[in-house]
Design goal:
single chain; mainly alpha; 8 helices
């Protein structure tokens, strides 16, 4: 009797062989039909992509956004976050199909985390301005953390002075 580990390994090799034969059109119609009766997965990469997309879509429905990082309570949080990072990199390097981009856009996928963070801080500053009448939050305003509004404003001023702030962002801040 074989151990479960050896049996699992041999089944995995057999499955891989069936996929290769199918891809190379060397698998008989009869075998294809038999495998399809058990919902055999022909394209493991596509299957995995769809699994992660469904998980992200579920997250989006529950949370109203698709920002996975720092989220807890999902069984796949770490791997889903990695998958999201991969989608961003794939888009940046033109390695993702338009249909996948469209699917991700349907759930407001955040393609650029830096731009997303900047836009959120800008909204926070705008709210501060509307509440207080000025746009220079004091150091004690909010949390004195890396992401505090006070420190964000200092960073924007430094970037402006060094000419490292886009025209659009300068215009928004004026």
């Amino acid at each position: 009797i074989s151990s479960p580990r050896i049996l699992h390994s041999s089944i995995g090799k057999w499955v891989s062989t069936q996929r290769v034969l199918y891809k190379n059109k060397k698998l008989s119609e009869k075998k294809i039909n038999l495998l399809e009766t058990i919902n055999f997965i022909w394209d493991k990469n596509e299957f995995d992509w769809q699994i992660y997309f469904c998980e992200l879509k579920e997250f989006y429905k529950k949370n109203g956004n698709s920002l996975i990082q720092n989220s807890v309570g999902l069984k796949m949080t770490d791997s889903l976050n990695t998958w999201c990072l991969t989608q961003r990199q794939d888009k940046k390097h033109s390695r993702i199909s338009k249909s996948r981009i469209d699917l991700l856009n349907e759930i407001n996928f955040i393609w650029d985390l830096n731009e997303f963070g900047w836009a959120n801080k800008f909204k926070e500053l705008k709210k501060f301005y509307l509440d207080k009448g000025y746009s220079t939050p004091p150091p004690e305003y909010g949390e004195l953390k890396k992401n505090s509004l006070y420190l964000w404003c200092i960073t924007q001023r430094l970037k402006y002075k060094k000419n490292n702030l886009s025209e659009g962002k300068v215009k928004d801040l004026e």
